[in-house]
Amino acid sequence: MAMRVNVGLIGFGTVGAGVARALLEKRRLLQERVGTRIVLRRVCDRDFRRSRGFRLPSELMTTDPAKILQDPDMHVVVELIGGIEPAKTLILEALRRGKHVVTANKALLAGHGAEIFRAADRTGTDLYFEASVGGGIPIIKALREGLIANELDAILGIVNGTSNYILSQMREKRISFHEALLEAKHHGYAERNPSLDVDGHDASHKLSILTLLGFGFQAQPSKIHVEGISKISQADIQYADELGYCIKPLAIAKVVDHELDVRVHPTLLAKSHLLANVNGVYNAVYVHGDMVGSELFYGRGAGQGPAASSVVSDIADVARNIASGASLRVPLSHPKSRSVRRLRRMGNIETRYYMRFMMKDKPGVLAKIAGVLGRHHISIASVHQKERHKARSVPVVMMTHEAKESHVRAALEAIDRVGFVKPPTVAIRTEAPRAR
What we know:
With 436 residues, this protein is of the alpha/beta class. It has three domains: 4-136 and 304-324, Rossmann fold; 140-301 and 339-343, Dihydrodipicolinate Reductase, domain 2, CATH 3.30.360.10; 348-431, ACT domain (Alpha-Beta Plaits). 36% of the residues lie in helices and 25% in strands. Strands 7, 8, 9, 10, 11, 12, 13, 15, 16, 17 and 19 form an eleven-stranded mixed sheet that branches. A six-stranded parallel sheet has the order 3-2-1-4-5-6, with helices on both faces. A two-stranded antiparallel sheet has the order 14-18. Helix 4 packs parallel to helix 5, helix 7 (161-173) packs across helix 8 (177-186) and helix 13 runs antiparallel to helix 14 (405-417). It is elongated, with a radius of gyration of 24 Å.
């Protein structure tokens, strides 16, 4: 008879319900593919009254997580409640008791991943977390296993489906940010309070996890420069399109002169970029390694099905490890990259910029702006003057050559202080495709 692996699930929300349903309804398929019997032994939640779309046997239900943590026959604990506490305490207690852990908790791993990894190492237990980044995309498995021989120098990702959906709708339907946000809420792609998504913080949590796996260097979310998409206007979407670009909510981690450049913000991507055609709620992560070159991982980044699929995949991996006596078969993170010494200061990054000025329609104004930019070591690549605005101001769009962030910020502050433009000036960074 196949070995039995018992699973305890803490958290019976949207993803938890999807995991429970898969473990119950696909148990024969899983046994055939994994070679062990994966048994859902207990499900813990505060409230089982709300319908989850299927019937969970009452004998599996408990409101007490101790019934899972203190069960000597429980092999795997799945944490799907989210947040920092009590999730952190529950995970550490599970590891202390020698139980393997599967989680989707990106916020917890971003802030406390190193501590939790050390606890797993001390107890010789497995910790899997595929669903924490990219929903159903196997990017964690790729970084931990598939790319283990590579020295990475870049990870770029569209890792928040809500923000990507909003910007895609703005571009396709020519609607405002607020109209696109209402559509996202209507379709269930945005929460009632969408700030974690549209302000970029969800993406920063995921980027923190990716930096730890890809570079062995965890950038804490508080150290990552973050900008949201709420200030992106329909005008900027249109102007970018005319110039051959699209605007995407990008999470960036790349090695530059032995420093790790990490940031999250709306970004102009040339339409030839691998990430440029990732639209709607889809996510994608672009990785460049010294051996494989460029790779793109693409798929649905949110929703019950994709996230539950990744959680069940992690449970299956743990079950195989238990059956073969090979816990900690896969490293939790790679050793620190030899090419990374420190995080790069935001003011030191260099890239090309899109700038939009609302200028007074008077002679000499454009020359004054060019003069300010020149004094701050910013070279103009192109200038495009648009139609006159109703308020008798003229939109002028500039693309710069590569410039330093600190120089750009100082120049725009100087320009916005004078009387010939209507502040604030819009500035959006660009990301060039890697040369092949």
